[in-house]
């Protein structure tokens, strides 16, 4: 009688196990990579939306408390004379400088060059007609259209706000 040693695996069985394992690990890796990419897109979208919210809040709150507003001829700059909570006045300005939306405030008219101004958001483009970021509507209302982009994800910001404060005098902002 011939004895057979059935313990262990044949080469064919080993190759099948390795192929099935590789297929399973490949699918698992694909799911993992897809999850990471989706998370990166969601994070970029959240950053863009957050920056758009900061811009909208800054402009909206300020212009609502303004006694006067002015938009530059190109529509890239917005100036506002703000009535502060203390009853005084403050000059505030926003400018789209390349792809950065910059902001400045103070008790005197804001400088014509925004190089030292605070960047509220980067990756910003204007979306109003003629490539404008801001447009004056009448004498007291401003509309603004901006797109904030972060890593390919966009947050579109289109809004309008009207100056509602009334008080004479104060500083000359523009």
Description:
The protein has one domain. The mean pLDDT is 94. It has a five-stranded antiparallel β-sheet with strand order 1-2-3-4-5, covered by helices on one side. Strands 6, 7, 8 and 9 form a four-stranded antiparallel β-sheet that branches. By secondary structure, it is an alpha+beta fold. It has one helix and nine strands, in the order αβββββββββ. Strand 7 and strand 8 form a beta hairpin. It is 31% helix and 35% strand.
Question: Any chance you could write out the topology, listing elements then pairs?
Answer:
Blueprint lengths: L10 H54 L1 E6 L5 E7 L5 E9 L2 E7 L11 E5 L1 E3 L7 E4 L3 E10 L2 E10 L12
Antiparallel strand pairs: 1-2, 2-3, 3-4, 4-5, 6-8, 7-8, 8-9
């Amino acid at each position: 009688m011939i004895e057979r040693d059935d313990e262990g695996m044949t080469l064919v069985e080993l190759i099948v196990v390795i192929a099935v394992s590789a297929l399973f690990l490949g699918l698992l890796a694909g799911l993992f990579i897809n999850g990471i990419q989706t998370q990166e897109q969601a994070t970029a979208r959240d950053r863009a939306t957050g920056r758009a919210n900061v811009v909208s809040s800054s402009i909206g709150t300020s212009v609502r408390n303004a006694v006067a507003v002015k938009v530059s001829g190109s529509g890239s700059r917005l100036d506002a004379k703000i009535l502060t909570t203390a009853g005084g006045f403050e000059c505030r300005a926003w400018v789209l400088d390349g792809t950065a939306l910059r902001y400045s405030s103070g008790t005197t008219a804001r400088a014509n060059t925004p190089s030292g101004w605070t960047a509220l958001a980067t990756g910003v483009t204007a979306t109003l007609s003629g490539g404008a970021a801001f447009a004056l509507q009448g004498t007291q209302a401003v509309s603004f259209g901006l797109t904030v982009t972060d890593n390919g994800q966009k947050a579109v910001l289109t809004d309008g706000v009207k100056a509602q404060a009334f008080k004479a005098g104060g500083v000359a902002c523009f």
